[in-house]
Amino acid sequence: MRCDVFSIFPDYLSPLNLSLMGKAQAEGLVDLSVHDLRDFTTDRHRSVDDTPYGGGAGMVMAAEPWARALESVIPAGSEVQRPTLIVPSPAGEVFTQARAEELATEDHLVFACGRYEGIDERVLEWAAGHFVVRPMSLGDYVLNGGEVAVLAMVEAIVRLIPGVVGNPLSLVEESHQDGLLEYPVYTKPSRWREADVPEVLLSGNHAKIARFRRDEQLRRTAARRPDLIARLDPAQLDRNDLEILHIEGFAVQNGAVRSVASDPGEN
Ligand code: 6GU
């Protein structure tokens, strides 16, 4: 996979050269380039921003440096498929594990890190002629710029490329892989400061261990992320699952898992 990242703070992206991401690059699984947006300016001050039309606080990133930057990575041949242009923004669609899986199959991703109040909208309209443009958000909070979001998205995507994570089995038992949070984990010693590891985990009974872990996934997800429980497919739940969910205040109604918590004000 080829990845091009554009930013006015290229140093912000240097962690992408460390650890698993650095190794993926060294092994040729990812070809990552970080570019300084200011290298695509033409004025003496290398300026990238200007005041917003219509007024309002802050500055807006100007179109021309962005267009010149993005043009530098448009593939030459017309037969190659358009790269995906990810524009980190709190106004984008939410980046999830499903989006990471989808993007991990692409040949060429381009990331445009905005700062200030964002990028002149006409850049995104123009870019749609050369890229599949996807504004994407990490979640409902505001960062100062797209760089930290790109660190998170690139890490989530690249680790799904075959060969990047040494043991592919470690990808299958993770949070969000089956729509549930992951189960709690423990290591030696079995008793630590009066606290024992759940006994079933020492039993060697693999069926019981699997059931315990599934129950813990359901309990945790119900407590911390009821929104994820509501998205479960009831056809994928066994009797034991339904029993746990019932204890946690959920039941299947009209083909969906719903909260039946009697707590007034809850819904
Ligand atoms: Cl992708 N960008 C910015 N600036 N803020 C964010 C975000 C992205 N996701 C959540 N907050």
Describe this structure in words.
The chain has 267 residues and is of the alpha/beta class. Helices cover 28% and strands 19% of the residues. The protein contains eight helices and eleven strands. A five-stranded parallel β-sheet has the order 2-1-6-5-7. Strand 1 (2-7), helix 1 and strand 2 (31-36) form a beta-alpha-beta unit. The longest helix has 19 residues, at 206-224. The model has no long low-confidence stretch (mean pLDDT 95). Bound molecules: 6-chloroguanine. 6-chloroguanine (6GU) binds at residues 88-90, 136-139, 141-143, 145-146, 149.
Main β sheet profile: 5 strands, parallel
Q: How many individual helices?
A: 8
Rounded mean pLDDT score: 95
| Bound small molecules, deduplicated | 6-chloroguanine
Which structural category do the helix and sheet elements fall into?
alpha/beta
Order of helices and strands: EHEEEHEHEHEHEEHHHEE
Strand content: 15-25%
Radius of gyration: 23 Å
Oligomer: single chain
Low-pLDDT sequence parts: none
Proportion in helices = 25-40%
- Lateral arrangement of strands in the main beta sheet: 2-1-6-5-7
How far the N terminus sits from the C terminus, by CA atoms, comes to 44 Å
Q: Count of DSSP E strands?
A: 11
Shape: elongated
